[in-house]
Amino acid sequence: MSATETFRIPKHRRHVPDARQRVRKALAGWGVTAQLADSVVLLANELVTNAVTHCRVSDAQVQVTLTLHGTELPS
């Protein structure tokens, strides 16, 4: 099984929770266990927060892409 979820959020800290929710929803839809999903959501939160914090383009968006191959989340 292979699945991909891609979405964009505006480059602003207030949208980071939206990214976390979208990641969690995609993982739940794919049947990823809660423990693994928690880890992936934490990692995604850190990456999105860093992107939002360090991007210097005012009207930029942060793109998040998750890909599931079989039973593993590739890095």
CATH C-level label? Alpha Beta
Sheet with the most strands: spatial strand order = 1-2
CATH superfamily: Histidine kinase-like ATPase, C-terminal domain
Radius of gyration: 13 Å
Q: Structural class, from secondary structure content?
A: alpha+beta
CATH architecture: 2-Layer Sandwich
Q: What is the string of SSEs from the N terminus onward? A: EHHE
The level of helicity is 40-55%
Beta-strand content: 15-25%
Number of strands: 2
Produce a short descriptive summary.
It contains two helices and two strands.
Write up this protein:
With 75 residues, the chain is α+β, with helices and mostly antiparallel strands. The protein has one domain: Histidine kinase-like ATPase, C-terminal domain (Heat Shock Protein 90). It is 47% helix and 24% strand. The protein has two helices and two strands; from the N terminus they run E-H-H-E. The protein has helices spanning 16-29, 34-54; strands at residues 2-10, 61-69. Strands 1-2 form a two-stranded antiparallel ribbon. Helix 1 packs antiparallel against helix 2 (34-54). The longest helix has 21 residues, at 34-54. The chain is elongated. The relative contact order is 0.29. The mean pLDDT is 90.
